[in-house]
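Quarterly update from the structural biology core.
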Amino acid sequence: MSKDINRILTFWFNSINPAEMATHREEWWVKNADFDKQITDEFSEVYEKAAKGELQNWQNTPLGAVALVIALDQFPRNMFRDSKKAFATDAQARKITRHAVEMGFDQHLPLGPRLFLYLPMEHSESAVDQNASVTLINTLGDEGYSEYAVKHQMVIEKFSRFPHRNDVLGRASTEEEIAFLNQPGSRF
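Predicted structure, tokenized:
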């Protein structure tokens, strides 16, 4: 395994040993400027290589695919928070997720890495991807993660996009979206 794959997995899951990988960390789900800065400082170069397609060989192993998805899907959400660049490599991440699932790589992973392998589908504004997300995340057997996947799916069913991204992506919000965004818990 490459040094950078090991660095990503150790940073994100606190271990490269699958049996010891984290299944939940608060930093994954809450806005934290220090965590964002740490990712930017430690992984900007890896992200840029991944974004340019220079790390595609990582997708040929289960843990390599997970590390590549984290570099393309999770890291930009932290590094470029509140900017459209946060979503710039989402399509690349989804392609790797599809490949990994087709190869059966997800079946060889513990809960934490499997979840992050699947998240590019949950982050998609496509109804087809949302359906895949719910199906995949339900296989984890974690009720909380499954409920969150369904919440994402319901937003896409209702609006065909995530309204909380509108400002960052320069999209006008409809009255219905504005009303939705004013509700508690409407943002991911």
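The longest helix spans residues 33-51.
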